[in-house]
Amino acid sequence: MDKPPFPAQILDSRKMLTVTLTGLGIALLVWSQAVNFLIFHALVEFFSVVVAFTIGVVAWQTHPFTRNHFLLFLGCMFPWIGGLDLMHTLLYKGMNLLPTDANPPTQFWVVARLLQGVALLCAPVYLTRTLRPVPILIGIGTLAVTLSIAILTGHFPDAYIEGMGLTSFKVGMEVVVIALLVGSRLFLMARRRLVDEQTLTWMTLAIGFSIVSELAFTFYTDLFGLSNLIGHIFKVGAFWFIFLALVHTTLHEPFRQLARQVSTYDSIPDPIVVVDKQGVIRQSNRVAEAVSGSATLVGAALHERLHSPSTPIEQCPVCRLLALGESSHGVELHLPEVGRWQMVVVSPLWTGTDPSAMVLVVHDITAKKRGEFRLRRLNRALYTLITCNHAMIHAHSEEGLFQDVCDLIVRRGGYAMAWVGLRGDDPERRIVPVAHAGKEDGFLETVPFFWDGPPETHCPATRALRRGKTTYINDIVHEIVYPRLREEALKRGYASTLAIPLRGDGGQPWGVLTVYADRPHFFTDDELVLLDNLSGDLAFGVESLRNEKARTQAQQEHRSSLERLNRSMEQVVEAVARTIEKRDPYTAGHQQRVATLAVAIARAMSLPEEQIRGIELGASIHDLGKINIPTEILTRPGKLNPYEMEIIRTHSQSGWEIMDGVDLPWPVATMILQHHERLDGSGYPHGIQDGEILLEARIIAVADVVEAMSSHRPYRARNPLDAALSEIETHAGSFYDPEVVRACLHLFREEGFNLEG
Fold first, then answer.
1. Does residue 504 have a pLDDT over 80?
2. Residue 271 falls in which region: left (phi positive, over 0), alpha (psi -120 to 50) or beta
3. Which of 234, 527, 651, 663 has the fewest CB atoms in 10 Å of its CB?
4. Number of domains into which the chain is organized
């Protein structure tokens, strides 16, 4: 069988030593009783008295730590019990200290045992209740002193009579004591869940030994007999077990827990220190010592060993709390020298009503702080990217876009300075700044940048343009080789820089976005990815603006060409109209006047300008087909015969045939063809009706009738204007469009329109 571990061996040795010493003690008492009963009695009683007073001292002194009111009650009772036992010992027969018989010491014995029974019976009450020790101590003391005076003055019932032995009072009191002890055992067992197992064992043994002791003292008749011997030995055992229960609760268990706490502190992975009001470390675990790099921290100043030396003690948040005696669930502490962050929990260590020291538990939160910092940086970069993309959507020019992006990078991104440079075509191959924002202070004017200069002038912007890749430097002091750039950057507080090339899809970089920060190692990998995306978006925005500019320019050129074409076409139309009018001098100006009236009617009807322009053009050449009519018919005075009228009516079809092949944005050929058609189908050349006639042709038809009737013709004289208006008004809805007629009448009758301009 394997040997038990070392601690178990020690425990077994202690048990054997305890048993051995107990046996030797009992043997010594038996021997002393055989030699001299008074010596035996004195040893037993003095031992009991010492144990009783020790119980009182230990219970009172350890109560602030144990808060055990059960043991404190026993501590209030047993010193007085010990005092009564001391009187019993001093007055015992044969001691000859006072001229008394055996009755007084027996009476003191009875009183002491009664108080002991009451103490053991009432003690379990204070397993759940708070004890006020001073009143109990004074009350029991007053009772003990009163009973002592009664005994010494003969006012207490007799307990022993010489020659007769114990009185019935004495025997009855022993029975009462036994009853109290049995009751205390039952009461204690009823509350055993409130007592630890070892203490319950010791108290049970103490009560059992006390009962046996009282039974022995019930039967003796001889002060020096066997019953007296047995009673005293069991009394010693009872007191000893009560003492063991007290020692276990107030000394063994607290020290065991303390040892466990010390080992627990060392097993905790976070530094823990106990600091007094002066900021001196009084206790620490091994982790705290390892963090500080010291073999021991006890006796050292907290701020000097564990806090940042660059922070004055009066500005240290933890030391301020210690000075004020305040606690905190978490104080952040930065240690810039080692690049660490700590969260310190400060809790008071109470002694009485005031905190005597503070317990500091230190959690390393560096990873958390770095994660928070990284997240803030990413959020900032992402927000910058979003706002810059928003600016790109609303940008109207490259220069404005560059400036907006620089402004947003500095204002939203929190960078010190940002600038955009374009690749120059000058012989020196300079990078030409076109926009900047932030703390520039003449930097771009002082430092020339080259995209292909000498090696000593190379910088991140140079490398970004030459290689087409994002380039950054996290420490300008040690990494920049361009002396002038390094000098001027440090003057303005720049500590790190980033340069991102700007280029189109797969092309050579044409520009660079450069960003400066006021701290070294400012740019993280994730931030570089976002800013690199920003450069791609910026380049796309610039390309879009350039494409839009080119498209706008092409559209403007196209519109100009169309306008020139339209003017040329209008000039051709005018030339054709003049040619027609020269063949028919009686109708000179007719087409132009019809066009003027038709445009006025169209505007009165709120037609679109583009449609009105087509109406104007169609009306200007609506009689184009007359170019095929013989001049003698056009100019013959008097009424035309039917044959000649049929020839005249062919001019609509002829005009359509001339214009049908001309590609125009308006249906001019159809306007010419239909301007003599009527809504009821009575017109020519095809006799079409309402829904088949263009609106433009209906407008020209009304304008043509009004102008023709109010003008001179070879075959008739001029008609009054009212006759022409009456004509269209009469036939509105049958020959002419009612809406067009209303607009025409409104022009002449309400707005005073004049055909002669």
1. no
2. beta
3. 663
4. 4
